[in-house]
Write a structure and sequence with these properties.
Distance between the termini: 71 Å
CATH superfamily of the largest domain: Valyl/Leucyl/Isoleucyl-tRNA synthetase, editing domain
Number of strands: 35
Number of helices: 31
Radius of gyration: 36 Å
CATH topology of the largest domain: Isoleucyl-tRNA Synthetase, domain 2
Strand content: 15-25%
Number of domains: 7
Enzyme class: ligase
CATH class of the largest domain: Alpha Beta
CATH architecture of the largest domain: Alpha-Beta Complex
Protein name: leucine--tRNA ligase
Shape: globular
Largest sheet: 5 strands, mixed
Helix content: 25-40%
Keywords: Aminoacyl-tRNA synthetase, ATP-binding, Ligase, Nucleotide-binding, Protein biosynthesis
InterPro entries: aa-tRNA-synth_I_CS, aa-tRNA-synth_Ia, Leu-tRNA-ligase, Leu_tRNA-synth_edit, M/V/L/I-tRNA-synth_anticd-bd, Methionyl/Leucyl_tRNA_Synth, Rossmann-like_a/b/a_fold, tRNAsynth_Ia_anticodon-bd
GO biological process, one term: leucyl-tRNA aminoacylation
Length: 956
């Protein structure tokens, strides 16, 4: 099929095809504009084939590498711009979410390239991890083979998107040439004491048979991958000491908040996950009957002002006191065994029968009697063993969670409230909900009655500190990063265990420690690497004695915590990247989903700060390395939702063959004939609303698909995908192609710029005829619209989140060109060139095709021109010669006339008189508004508004 089939047929042939069905069917009709239906097509000589245009220019780009020249070496320069979308996991199929994020990245990269920057836009594969291993098990194929096949398939799909990826920098995290340096990074951290092994209670996924980091367990205590309830086990594991950088990770969030560099939502999630809390450690002495327990229960609290309201103490199942009591209490042990199966918000508890706690304030002489009563002690699953001291003080009157627990176990018991919103509400009805804010201490607070709770809290801590029962402390929610995984498909941990020397790092010259060929699909506990004696058994690098390799692999988030740095120097065999290449960092614009806020993004910030403390990033010093950030700007795109059809009778999602779409706007259930309900939902197989981007691109073309995706919603919003709406974009492209073809065919003085042409013409405007003035108005209007569009589009490209307005602005400019056909070819050609260049980042192949029409012998648009800038040098064009003025009589519009814009200095009566004069000097004004009932000269009052664009005359 020819690229532009109609270039081979004339307008007469097109008319014959439309009137002759047999001829009509032999001609492909890829895209026909709605504004130009079949009857109008006779005026057009062709219908564009966008998919053929894509194929043509992708081939040329591949041959000449001119789409956007990749920079092999980016120097430390302000002209660099490193654009990076989060690299994909090679599942085998790209979805519309991929298409959205990678289209956005390519648009930014092409825009920066046209602006003159040296742009880096690499692509690679996040190839290790559980999904690949589990999929390989299901398909009975090695994960390496499955992953390699998927990467090849997805690379083909990515290339269909008209992206300008620098494939010379392609990397895969499962390639030994990459994970050699992941292992080197581990050893660098180990040398600094930031990678260590320790026995700890860990999260165990019984389905995937591996340990999970805290960040990989959801709020319900379930695995983020398998969805199964996570178990707790004590295992010896490897950790990264991310806590060493917690202050820097928190403090630099403020820098990332400046100028909205990072979304507020991401910053809030990271701040919450870091969880810095200033509070107090408080000791509750215990009374143990029949047990040798002497140590006080230590509790961390951020609200010491509520100590008077403590009504119980709760311990985590892992608390040392609980472990001691469980040894002789079978019922307690049985309760502990049930905890892994309970929901995270469970309010069940086990009352320890022989243990009571004493409120430390009980020893103060002015403490109310209620506070001196000994407190029940529970074992409760809602208490976290790894936060604070594994114990909480229960304050039902001032904490929602404690209130729910208390009511579960003491339904009829009163709830004591010890502070309220104001002094005149010092006592609050027990039936009320807990008061969780700061307020005024009540009569139940003894000596502190009437004081503000914040100040009282500080005084209480000082009081107890003297008795060695409390001290101010600071706590963090963040825990060190657990990186050990008991699976095969990951980076082997480069440590050798020797009975004599202990844990010994693998020497650099022995890296990479490669994955062995093992029976990786064997389903059992422990690491699959243990089954390879050849891998496990080795010699100690220090003493040459028999030793064993570590058989765990690393969390795949270790790979993604530094891959962006490897892209700067992907073929370096000796270092993760050279110090010279490292000067390219940080990434200027990073694009990806908000779901990575507290996993990948937090880990990447930690690792980059560590790298900034090494010789690999010489731009940072000992004083500045903790302020280093990997991504200057973060763009989080919204999800793509698909259209679902729902049976109104039972709420069931309908399969495609169960819906009658004869009228797409009124879908019907085939079985019942009833109207189907429509909703937009997250795409999934169970909802039958998935869309294959490759099929969509093959149908409409990559450029139309990209423009449609960007046009439908702001970047940060959820995009409700509706295939039917792409017709608006394809009509626009067809219409613009018509105009470019016509402009290219017009003779034009190519050595004269539009600016010079308009400047010369303005000097003759005083003697111009009415026809010449009309042409001047059209040409000046085009000039003004081009300048406005350049300013608006540039701002939108820079802002990124409003890329949808780029498409709408360019559509408006297209209409301006179409509505001013009498303008000079010089002005129209230059406006068309600006329009094509502005759309090139979004529709690169289509822009190339249009550029080729205007400049048949020139190189690629990305080589031939740069992004347009506004030109304010022609002051006479800033304001139009005439503007429409709506003439109202007694509030109703009776006509519109064209008059000059009023002089800025006129106002009041002077402005009114000037406008009346100008209106009556026009042909329509003289005929309509100087005689009869609409004679303006008889007006009692005239009110000009909107800068002279409207005037209301009040007549009798």
């Amino acid at each position: 099929m020819p690229l532009l089939q109609s270039r081979l047929i004339g307008c007469a042939a097109a008319r014959r095809a439309l009137s002759n069905p047999s001829l009509h069917n032999s001609i492909r009709r890829p895209i026909i504009a709605r504004h130009a239906p079949a009857a109008t097509l006779s005026r057009r000589c062709y219908a564009i084939d966008l998919t053929s245009i894509d194929n043509k220019w992708r081939k040329r780009w591949k041959e000449s590498n001119e789409s956007m020249k990749p920079s092999d070496k980016l120097a430390d320069s302000k002209d660099n711009h490193y654009v990076l979308p989060m690299f994909p996991y090679p599942s085998g199929t790209l979805h519309l979410g991929h298409l959205r994020v990678y289209s956005i990245a390519d648009v930014i990269a092409r825009f920066r390239s046209l602006k003159g920057d040296k742009v880096m836009l690499p692509m690679g594969w996040d190839a290790f991890g559980l999904p690949a291993e589990n999929a390989a098990i299901e398909r009975n194929v090695a994960p390496e083979k499955w992953t390699t096949i998927n990467m090849a398939k997805m690379k083909e799909q990515l290339e269909l998107m008209n992206g300008s990826w620098d494939w010379n920098r392609e990397l895969s995290t499962c390639d030994p040439s990459f994970y050699k340096h992941t292992q080197k990074l581990f050893l660098m951290l180990h040398e600094r004491g930031l990678a260590y092994q320790a026995e700890a209670e860990v999260n165990w996924d019984p389905v995937d048979k591996t340990v999970l980091a805290n960040e990989q367990v959801d709020s319900n205590g379930c695995s983020w991958r398998s969805g199964v309830k996570v178990e707790k086990r004590n295992l010896k594991q490897w950790f990264f000491r991310i806590s060493e950088f917690r202050e820097a990770l928190l403090e630099e969030l403020e820098a990332l908040a400046k100028e909205n560099a990072w979304p507020e939502r991401v910053l809030a999630q990271q701040k919450n996950w870091l969880g810095k809390s200033a509070g107090a450690s408080v000791k509750f002495p215990v009374l143990a009957m029949g047990h040798d327990i002497r140590a006080a229960i230590e509790v961390f609290t951020t609200r010491p002002d509520t100590l008077f309201g403590v009504q119980y103490v709760a311990l985590a199942a892992s608390h040392p006191i609980v472990a001691k009591l469980a040894a002789s209490d079978p019922e307690l042990q049985a309760f502990i065994d049930t905890i892994p199966g309970l929901p995270a918000d469970s309010k069940v508890g086990y009352l320890l029968p022989h243990l009571r706690a004493i409120n430390p304030l009980a020893y103060h002489e002015e403490t109310p009697d209620a506070t001196k009563v000994s407190l029940p002690v529970y074992v409760a699953p809602y208490v976290l063993g790894d936060y604070g001291e594994g114990a909480v003080m229960g304050v039902p009157g001032h904490d929602l969670r404690d209130n729910a627990f208390w009511k579960e176990h003491h339904y009829d018991a009163p709830v004591r409230q010890v502070l309220s919103a104001s002094e005149d509400e010092s006592t609050t009805a027990m039936e009320n909900e807990p008061f969780v804010e700061h307020g005024i201490m009540s009569e139940h607070s003894g000596y502190f009655k009437g004081k503000h709770s914040a100040a009282a809290g500080e005084e209480i801590v000082k009081l107890l500190e003297k008795a060695e029962l409390a001290k101010p402390v600071e706590k963090w929610r963040l825990r060190d990063w657990l990186i050990s995984r008991q699976r095969y498909w990951g980076t082997p941990i480069p440590i050798i265990h020797c009975d004599t020397c202990g844990s010994v790092p693998v020497p650099d010259e022995q890296l990479p420690v490669k994955l062995p060929d093992v029976d990786w699909s064997e389903t059992r506990s422990g690491s699959p690497l243990e089954s390879s004696a050849e891998f496990v058994n080795t010699t100690c690098p220090k003493c040459n004695s028999a030793a064993r390799r570590d058989t765990d692999t690393m969390d795949t988030f270790v790979d993604s915590s530094w891959y962006y740095a490897r892209f700067t120097d992907p073929h370096n065999q000796d270092q993760p990247f050279s110090p010279e290449a490292g000067k390219t960092l940080p990434v200027d614009t990073y694009i990806g989903g908000i779901e990575h806020a507290i996993l990948h993004l937090l880990y990447a910030r930690f690792i980059f700060k560590f790298l900034a403390s090494t010789d690999l990033l010489p731009q940072y010093t000992e004083e500045t390395y903790k302020s280093a950030e990997p991504f200057k700007r973060l763009i989080t795109q919204g999800m793509v939702h698909g259209k679902t059809y729902i049976d109104p009778d039972n709420g069931r999602f309908l399969k495609p063959d169960e819906v009658d779409l004869t009228d797409p706007n009124k879908p019907k259930v085939v079985a019942s004939g009833r109207s189907a309900n429509i909703a937009y939902e997250k795409m999934s197989k169970s909802k039958y609303n998935g869309v294959d981007p490759s099929e969509f691109i093959s149908k409409y073309g990559a450029d139309a698909t990209r423009a449609h995706m960007l046009f439908q919603a702001p970047v940060g919003d959820v995009l409700n995908w509706d295939e039917g709406k792409i017709t608006g974009v394809t009509r626009w492209l067809q219409r613009l192609h018509d105009q470019i073809t016509a402009i290219a065919a017009e003779p034009c003085e190519k050595n004269t710029s539009a600016r010079d042409y308009l400047a010369a013409k303005h000097g003759r405007i005083g003697s111009a005829s009415a026809k010449e003035l009309a042409q001047w108005d059209a040409e000046a209007g085009i000039w003004r619209d081009v300048q406005r569009t350049i300013a608006s589009v540039t701002a939108s490209y820079d802002e990124v989140y409003s890329l949808n307005t780029v498409v709408s602005d360019l559509m408006i400019l297209t209409n301006t060109l179409a509505d001013n056909t009498t303008a000079s070819p010089i002005v129209k050609r230059e406006a068309a060139q600006a329009l094509i260049t502005m759309m090139a980042p979004i529709t690169p192949a289509f822009a190339e095709e249009c550029w080729d029409l205007l400049h048949p012998s020139s190189p690629s648009i990305f080589e031939s021109t740069s992004f347009p800038t506004t030109d304010a040098s022609l002051a006479e064009l800033v304001r139009p010669r005439v503007q429409p003025c709506a003439v109202q009589i007694n509030g109703k519009v009776r006509g519109v006339v064209n008059i000059p814009p009023p002089p800025a200095e006129l106002a009041g009566d002077e402005l009114r008189d000037w406008m009346v004069k100008e209106i009556l000097q026009t042909e329509e004004g003289a005929a309509r508004f100087s005689v009869g009932q609409y004679d303006l000269r008889a007006a009692k009052r005239a009110i000009p508004v909107r800068g002279g664009k409207t005037i209301n005359f009040v007549l009798k």
